[in-house]
């Protein structure tokens, strides 16, 4: 029988010590250990549970431990986090199993001394009438940080930028798995046919109401093994990214530049809007990532994409004047925390350098836009410095550009007051990942 708790511990250590991505580390562990679907679900619940609640769990450890948290070595700390998660946040695990299996795990890792320490803390928690009390609500930032397990710096950023109401709803939306969405490959099929084919493979697919050819998927297991996927009938893409490409409105025979394009999802969707006619230059500054685009395009039967190794901020490779430009810039990723919960613990989350890099990419790319063309600047983050402030500055410093008002579909509402040419999508207002989209046009010169 697979030792699921040990597998979860090893995945958590890979993420914490080696900076591995949760989804990749978890998928690898599931494959390497050939886990059944029940065991895979349990290991996923343990790993994501700890990642989503780490700050809360550490707060509880601090309350029960005589040793300061920073002095507890990483393995012991993670065994404790796993144990407390099972005791307090997983209904189906009996207390005795949570305690005994944690102690066994410590012994398995030859942590004899720690096993007593772990046993003591977990047993004290089981005996306590009130398991833990959150910090005083008057210290709002600390209270929200511990309650939702998000660093105080992000809580502060969101409360100050989007108001306390939005911030709390955003924080509450982070835990629990985000829905899997896909984009129907309209070059090969249509939504109804794909839904039927997926259903034949046991996948439940449902149309996303606010955007054509977008589906929610459930019960997929590993997507890559599906026949419909192998036959290139869809690609995975959140509804927010699909909306972004929809606003770009690429047409057949357009020339399009996707300046930060890997792994290629938005280029693929645009190629479908263009009916695979015209040309998309899909650029990125990493060669290995361009290979992902080529492979994806091949699987989907897209031939209008040319990949190009290029640094978008220096504009050192000549590109044609384009009808459509997409600047889907590198960002802090605060909008996809429910998909990658470990993002919140990165040290340099609110970087002072990113907004300038993004602004540089936007300015350099805009030079290639044709009069009458459209340019989108987008990020998958929720930070006005990387979003609204960058685009406001762009319009101020580029009088030959103007903001194009976005026509929002039913079901997509603004969480706060913004300019008509931009929208910050939030999980609680739009049911999407957190995402920012802004749309620009270029004036004819006099
Ligand atoms: C947000 S991701 C793009 C996602 C992509 N648009 C999609 O939909 O699949 C940003 C990409 O920008 C690339 N990148 C970062 N800095 C860059 C630069 N200076 N020039 C070009 N690409 C860059 C990264 O390698 C990354 O693949």
UniProtKB/TrEMBL annotation:
GO terms for cellular component: cytoplasm. One of its GO terms (molecular function) is RNA binding. Gene3D superfamilies: NusB-like, Sun protein, domain 3, Vaccinia Virus protein VP39. It holds the Pfam family NusB. Keywords: Cytoplasm, Methyltransferase, RNA-binding, rRNA processing, S-adenosyl-L-methionine, Transferase. InterPro entries: MeTrfase_RsmB-F_NOP2_cat (IPR049560), MeTrfase_RsmB-F_NOP2_dom (IPR001678), NusB-like_sf (IPR035926), NusB_RsmB_TIM44 (IPR006027), RCMT (IPR023267), rRNA_ssu_MeTfrase_B (IPR004573), RsmB-like_ferredoxin (IPR054728), SAM-dependent_MTases_sf (IPR029063). S-adenosyl-L-methionine binds at residues 260-266, 284, 328. It is an enzyme of class 2 (transferase). Its EC number is 2.1.1.176. Residues 170-443 form the SAM-dependent MTase RsmB/NOP-type domain. It is found in: Cytoplasm. It catalyses: cytidine(967) in 16S rRNA + S-adenosyl-L-methionine = 5-methylcytidine(967) in 16S rRNA + S-adenosyl-L-homocysteine + H(+). The active site is at residue 380. Its main location: cytoplasm. GO terms for biological process: regulation of DNA-templated transcription. PROSITE patterns: SAM_MT_RSMB_NOP. It comes from the Bacteria. Transmembrane segments: none annotated. Specifically methylates the cytosine at position 967 (m5C967) of 16S rRNA. Belongs to the class I-like SAM-binding methyltransferase superfamily. RsmB/NOP family. PANTHER family: NOP2 YEAST -RELATED NOL1/NOP2/FMU SUN DOMAIN-CONTAINING, RIBOSOMAL RNA SMALL SUBUNIT METHYLTRANSFERASE B-RELATED. This is 16S rRNA (cytosine(967)-C(5))-methyltransferase. It comes from Ruminococcus bromii.
């Amino acid at each position: 029988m697979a030792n699921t708790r040990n597998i979860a511990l090893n995945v958590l250590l890979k993420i914490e010590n080696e900076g591995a991505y949760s989804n990749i580390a978890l998928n690898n562990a599931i494959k390497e250990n050939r886990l059944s679907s029940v065991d895979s679900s349990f290991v996923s619940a343990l790993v994501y549970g700890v990642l989503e609640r780490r700050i809360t769990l550490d707060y509880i450890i601090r309350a029960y431990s005589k040793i300061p948290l920073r002095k507890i070595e990483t393995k012991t700390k993670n065994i404790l986090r796993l144990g407390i998660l099972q005791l307090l946040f997983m209904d189906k695990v009996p207390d005795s199993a949570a305690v005994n299996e944690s102690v066994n795990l410590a012994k398995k890792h030859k942590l004899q001394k720690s096993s007593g320490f772990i046993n003591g803390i977990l047993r004290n928690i089981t005996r306590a009438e009130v398991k833990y009390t959150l910090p005083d609500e008057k210290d709002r930032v600390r209270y929200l940080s511990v309650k939702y397990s998000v660093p105080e710096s992000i809580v502060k950023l969101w409360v100050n930028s989007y108001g306390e109401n939005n911030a709390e709803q955003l924080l509450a939306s982070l835990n629990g798995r985000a829905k899997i969405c896909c984009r129907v490959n309209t070059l090969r099929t249509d939504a109804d046919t794909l839904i039927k084919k997926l259903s034949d493979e046991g996948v439940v697919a449902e149309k996303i109401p606010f955007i054509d050819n977008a589906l929610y998927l459930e019960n997929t297991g590993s997507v890559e093994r599906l026949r419909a996927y192998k036959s290139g009938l869809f690609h995975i893409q959140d509804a927010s990214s699909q909306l972004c490409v929809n606003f770009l409105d690429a047409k057949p025979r357009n020339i399009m530049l996707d300046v930060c394009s890997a792994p290629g999802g938005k280029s693929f969707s645009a190629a479908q809007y263009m009916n695979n006619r015209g040309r998309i230059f899909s650029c990125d500054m990493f060669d290995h990532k361009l290979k992902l685009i080529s492979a994806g395009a091949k699987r989907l039967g897209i031939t209008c994409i040319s990949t190009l190794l290029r640094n978008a901020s220096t504009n050192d490779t000549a590109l044609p004047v384009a009808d459509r430009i997409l600047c889907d810039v590198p960002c802090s990723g605060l909008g996809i925390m429910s998909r990658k919960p470990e993002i919140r613990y990165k040290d340099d989350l609110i970087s002072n350098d990113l907004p300038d890099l993004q602004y540089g990419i936007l300015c350099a790319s805009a030079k290639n836009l044709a009069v009458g063309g459209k340019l989108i600047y987008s990020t998958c983050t929720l930070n006005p410095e990387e979003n609204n402030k960058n685009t406001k500055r762009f319009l101020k410093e580029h009088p030959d550009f103007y903001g194009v008002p976005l026509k929002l579909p039913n079901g997509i509402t603004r969480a706060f007051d913004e300019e008509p040419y931009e929208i910050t999508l939030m999980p609680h207002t739009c049911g999407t990942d957190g995402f920012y989209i802004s749309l620009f046009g270029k004036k004819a010169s006099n």
